[in-house]
Amino acid sequence: MKKIKNNSLTSLDDFISKHHGKRGTEKREEFEAGYEVFKLGALLHDARIAKGLTQEQLGAKVGKNKSYISKIENDIKEIRLSTLQEIVTVGLGGRVNLTIDL
Asked: How far is CA 46 from CA 9, 35, 36, 99, in A?
């Protein structure tokens, strides 16, 4: 199989820098913060699907309604750390791992 080289491709970091500024700039930091919130919802969605649960089933396990779970997964509602831990541990049977990068 012959590989085709495409010189018009850009790295993800270069693409983000072009559209949101270099790392450390205010615009880029706002983008990165928004991405982290979006990523959390996507991670919860993927974990829920992997466990074979509907939003309604997951919500029932942790005393929340389907709408609440949907809003978290779709980045409409922010979530408290204690609620995140409850959803992951009680609802999904997992655990939350956090890191702080300086």
From this structure: 28, 16, 15, 20
Q: Which of 39, 67, 42 is nearest to 55 (CA)?
A: 67
Burial (0-12, 13-18, 19+ Cβ within 10 Å), 59: buried
**CA 91 – CA 22 distance, rounded (Å):** 39
By the 8 A CB rule, do 87 and 44 touch? yes
Q: What is the pTM of this model?
A: 0.67
Q: What is the DSSP letter of 87?
A: I
pLDDT per position as a tens digit, 71-95: 999 988 888 999 999 999 999 999 9
Structural domains of the chain, ranges and CATH numbers in brackets: 34-102 (1.10.260.40)
Residue type, 72: I
